[in-house]
Records
---
Amino acid sequence: MRLSAEEKRARREIKAWQREGAPWAARAFDWAMQPVDWAAQQAAGPEGIDRAEAAVSDFLARLSDASEWTYEEEDLLEKARARGLEAENVADLRHHALDELDALARSFFNQNTLLAALEGGSTGLGGAALIAADVPLLFTIGFRLIQQIGRAYGFPMRGPDARPLVLSVFNVAASGRTEAKAHALREVSAAASSFASGQPYRGRVTGTFESQNRHLPREIAKNLVGRKLGQTIPVAGAAVGAGVNYWFTRQTAEAAFMLFRALYLDWKERK
């Protein structure tokens, strides 16, 4: 199916996003966090960093079934209907205009970033003792946000088969690198082909979930852990926890927004 002028403009935006590195806001945050990163790494030492990375990596590699995640289909459909987007199920939303779906998807940004910041600030008060609780909560908020944005474009992200694309979103959020974006867009292309043909999406690479994604949990952990260790710094822990969680959740929202727009456009072109 041919794309409209608005959809072609969105395609150009996605291509520009793919080519660019981390956005200026993320680069500014990186610069501001450098002293905190250094202090946290000195305090934790190489062994502490390795243990923290291993814990995050293990948590991501053992993602629970997506049916246990935290957002129900009917909640999103009610929000869509309140915006005049009639749909009996999530897949029906694919047949609405992209700009309407963009607005629906963006409506989930602020509530999740605020929730993540509040959670990070609260657990940051407990220093190292509460980091173990903070990381699962942060990713649970991220899972919920990815579900909401994916469904806003008509693509339910339920079940183990959704994990390759979900991990790709997190990898883009954690690193912002062009290589991560290219990998994620290849996953998007595979997912679009599956949805367009009516086949279940199972990721680009055949085999087990571990063989498909063995590098991604460690990559995500490597890019996030230094920041989370800043929560161990006395007094500053709450502020660091809130800031890091806000930054990561905002990056997750932006990555999911671009990638699910791309999925919508790829699916439409294949129909």
---
Amino acid sequence: MSNELNELREKKKDELMNNESKSKKHIIVYSTNTCPYCVMVKQYLKQKGFSFEDKNVSMDMLAGIEMVRKSGQQGVPVVDIDGKIIVGFNKPVIDSVLGL
């Protein structure tokens, strides 16, 4: 019984640490209303438990300028994870940068 309790405690501790590291990531998604890949990248981040700031570049000209300055291009989505810029919905790169 004691062993099971210790295992449960360790599992809970790992979950808490994992959630804490997720909340420490600063993620910005530059997107538009009509981009299906933008929707997919935002859904993917939510499924993985990450919160993010969504900047709609079709509605916010300053966000668009910021995105182009960071990425060097006008295509969306652009994902900024702690300053690492990812162009497009590239799961392997996103996972790598997120430490998944």
---
Amino acid sequence: MDRVRRVIGAWKTDERGIRGKGVGVAVLDTGVSPHPDFGGRIVCFRDFVGGRVGIYDDCSHGTHVCGILGGSGAASAGKYRGIAPECRLIGLKVLDHKGNGRKEDMLRGIAWAVNNREAYGIRILNISVGTVRESASMDRQLTEAVERAWDAGLVVVVAAGNMGPEPMSITVPGNSRKVITVGASDDCTPGGAGGVKPCYSGRGPTGECICKPDISAPGSAIVSCNGILRRGAGHYTRKSGTSMATPAVSGSIALLLSREPELTNVEVKMRLYRTARDLGLPRQRQGWGQIDAWRLLMGNPPVDNGKIMHYYRT
């Protein structure tokens, strides 16, 4: 996370005390553990898999995602601090101990976030989850669910999936036209994939000819919070995937909304487009470019504003 903060410019926002304070982010994943880096900022937890009441994560994936998004770095003297270390975390467990899940639990989790957005101040829904196409019915239900969340006003940020590098490898529900779909900008880094195949990030276009992903962020070999602290295990672990890139974008958006809470989700998406840093990679790999947290807050566009609506529609 020390590398990620540097690469996307989040160290500048942190130095100026911009840390996402008060912004609620619902994380749809394997759960979240009471890690020292979260302090008292896990304001709600719901288990749609086992129905348990206590906060837990029996896979560690969700805790790792939450650490990237909003860990304080307390257990590492700040080294592995997340992007928005003062945001509020809402853990929604929809995946089991192996990281697998049912469509029904996903749908229930998304609906809960929509119905409880005002009670918990939820502005962002982070979905580091994706499924390969199984049936038109399943695809449609998941896509419609995230689009209902978007229409309700939530900023929905979804992983592009790890099925790349072939075209049309974006996973569901990252194929939705409305949501912000995140790819990994460093997925082809030699030796840096860390357990996943090289060039793993899902590539567009989608089957409906929608240009995806929308934006990218570092996702390879990211050190963040460990959710399963067995004897001898440390507070941090290393993971790779678009699951890791997605919370870097959600955290950056939390920083923006803490400064400009009146922004709508469409305005946030437009700001992402205007301020993304072009890495010179193909559009179907990097999206508009890599997230730049500092530019995002400053609203400093490095591209032609006249093209914004064209890219949004496609």
